[in-house]
Amino acid sequence: MIRIAIKMLMGDRLKYLGLLAGMAFAAMMISQQMSIFLGLSSQTGTFIREMTSTDLWVMDPQLRFSEDTISLPDTALQRVRSIEGVAHAVPLYKGFLKAQLADGTRTSVIVVGVDDATLSGAPATIKNGDATLLRQEPGILIDERDMGTKLAYTRSGGAPMKLGDRISINDRDALVVGTYRGSPSFFWDPTIYTTYSRALQFAPRERRLMSFVMVKVAPGQDVLAVKERIERITGYAARTSVDFENITKAYILKSTGILINFGIAVGLGFVIGMIVTGQTFFNFTLDNLRYFAALKAMGASTGTLVRMVLSQVLSVTWLAFGLGVGIAAFMGHFLAKTDLAFLMKWEVLVVTVGMMLVVGVVAALISLVKVLRLEPGVVFKG
Amino acid sequence: MDTLTATPTIEPGAKADRPVAVYCKGITKTYGSGQSAVRALRGVDVDVRTGELMMLVGPSGCGKTTLISIIAGVLDRDEGECTVLGKDFKVLGPSGTTQFRATNVGFVFQAFNLIPTLTLAENVAVPLLINRVRRADAIEQACEMLKKVGLGDRTKDIPTRLSGGQQQRVAISRALVHKPKLLVCDEPTSALDHVTGQKVMELLRSVAAGNDLSLVVVTHDARIFEFADRIAEMDDGRIVSMTTGKGHQHSSFDASHAK
Ligand SMILES: Nc1ncnc2c1ncn2[C@@H]1O[C@H](COP(=O)(O)OP(=O)(O)OP(=O)(O)O)[C@@H](O)[C@H]1O
Ligand SMILES: [Mg+2]
């Protein structure tokens, strides 16, 4: 009877296509919004993820996210270095600073200062050499993606920044000695790498403090044990990259309302899908009520009718899911080539399937109530 | 029992010696309650013999549809006794009754009720599919059945491309494909013109003749009375007369004549 049921539905082209379109739209909306959300929330951790050279980030316990401005005293570095299990520890500066281009274009930049001696923490994707480029005074590395956009000479026609150009950071002279290939980050401002000591010169006086101490754990040492030791002895917080990324993500999601906004969009897709699907399918059921009544009279059991109605809805649900997610993925494919966030993880598919199944089952239930309540006696009525 | 129940002029009919397929005594049915209550049946006594074609006639609203609905097990009676093929639906319960209908009862409706998006073969196969016959077997048997009613070359067609008479023949095929013991037909000819109606009745008649199938046919159409073994006339929720028809004379009709 399941094939019969599906044929009944597919034979009604208009309703079938309406149902398919409604459900596909819902699936697309749900999966697309979730993917953008995941993309955005993943981009909050770009900086932390790219800092692969560290095992632990030591920071002020009150620091809430990677761009927060609470710093450590200079003494922190020595204190951390003296802790058992720490192979080496280097300072890292990170701060928002004002910058001005040669043509007077003003912008704000994120300056990252890496340890002068080891240059550990400098980007791994430098195009025209390696981190030692920073030995040149007063060298900085810029993201090649920013050259023609965020660091372009907007005031004088928009020409891109080039290697060898000079830029003034907080009224201090800086020289573009190299470019690297960064990844899109939630924190919009261009990220500029330099050495730790140079970064301190750029930074305003009161900010001459360390943002983080980056710790490499000695071989054979348990990272978590070292983390606990650092926290116990220094009173600072020591976090693995994963932990740090998580608190950053949680803070951004909480403080920006991003989660709520995307939640609303996904919820809307869900509700619209539910309404359209429920409505269209209910109309289909009403149109076919006399056939359902005839089937009931002919001895179709409750179980058979439930299977029929469910298979009608679910046959559309799967197709609509594929279609909707396909369209979303197709759009995402093009988004992925830009800096826009789009991350369709398998979780997106699972949640979308789950939501679509709920939509389908609810639509089916509404119709089923109608079908099951039908008195078979009505078959003989006109 | 209601004192108004006149003793109907019941004639035994040509098949009075056959076993009883449907037995009803003192059946009542009231729709609704209070002010709006409608007493559709006020004590109906009737029996249908195996292999018999009984017609139910009477003015509109007299309770014909109500009675066959109860006999077919799609409507619950209020009072009285009713057994069909020895079974009482009140004892069988709802799901037992559903199962009973699936195996033992065939339905022919005035409005055909063929599912428009299915082929003729699929429509006819539905009762078999309900009885969990494998799809391929069901379709094969459905085609056989369609061949018997002269539509063997249209099995893959859809119902709406057929004339009314052809659609009713498909409906009859569907009603018979699972070899039921009881066939109930509500106004099977009233959507058809006279000649077509006659042919449909000839078909029904010939089907009834060959099997131990009992038919109950509700009709307004006096021109088809000749096909009945017995005619039960109803009025105001009762059977008021029972006459013997000439149906047995038609027993020699063959399905191949019904074109
Ligand atoms: N579901 C229902 N609810 C209320 N009253 C009903 C219902 N079904 C039938 N009736 C009433 O019961 C009475 C008998 O109805 P029934 O349909 O059995 O008559 P009928 O003899 O088949 O009439 P017709 O020849 O017009 O088909 C009528 O008065 C009808 O209005
Ligand atoms: Mg009627």
Task: Explain the overall architecture.
The complex is a heterodimer of chains A (382) and B (259). Chain A is an alpha+beta fold. Chain A has two domains: 2-43 and 257-380, no CATH class; 56-239, no CATH class. Helices cover 49% and strands 16% of the residues of chain A. Chain A contains eleven helices and nine strands. In chain A, strands 1, 2, 3, 4, 5, 6, 7, 8 and 9 form a nine-stranded mixed β-sheet that branches. In chain A, a hairpin with a 4-residue loop joins strand 2 (86-101) and strand 3 (106-114). In chain A, helix 1 packs across helix 10 and helix 2 (13-43) packs antiparallel against helix 8 (258-287). Chain B is α/β, with parallel strands linked by helices. Chain B is globular and about 50 Å long. Chain B has a domain at 1-85 and 217-259: Rossmann fold. In chain B, the strands form two sheets. Chain B has a seven-stranded mixed β-sheet with strand order 1-10-9-4-8-7-6. A three-stranded antiparallel β-sheet of chain B has the order 3-2-5, with helices on one face. In chain B, helix 3 (120-130) runs parallel beside helix 5 (164-176), helix 4 packs across helix 5 and helix 5 (164-176) runs parallel beside helix 6. In chain B, helix 6 links the parallel strand 7 (182-186) and strand 8 (214-218). Chain B starts with 8 loop residues before the first strand and ends in a 15-residue tail after the last strand. Helices cover 31% and strands 25% of the residues of chain B. The model of chain B is unreliable at 1-10 and 251-259 (pLDDT under 50). Chain B has helices at 64-72, 89-104, 120-130, 135-148, 164-176, 194-210, and strands at 9-10, 20-31, 38-49, 53-57, 79-84, 105-108, 182-186, 214-218, 230-235, 238-244. The chains are: A alpha+beta (382), B alpha/beta (259). The A-B interface holds A 1, 3-4, 7-8, 10-12, 288, 290-291, 294-302, 304, 375-377, 379-382 and B 65, 68-69, 72, 74-75, 95, 98-103, 105, 107, 109-111, 113, 115-118, 122, 126-127, 129-131, 135, 186. Adenosine-5'-triphosphate (ATP) binds at residues 31-32, 38, 40, 60-66 of chain B. Magnesium ion binds at residues 64-65, 186 of chain B.
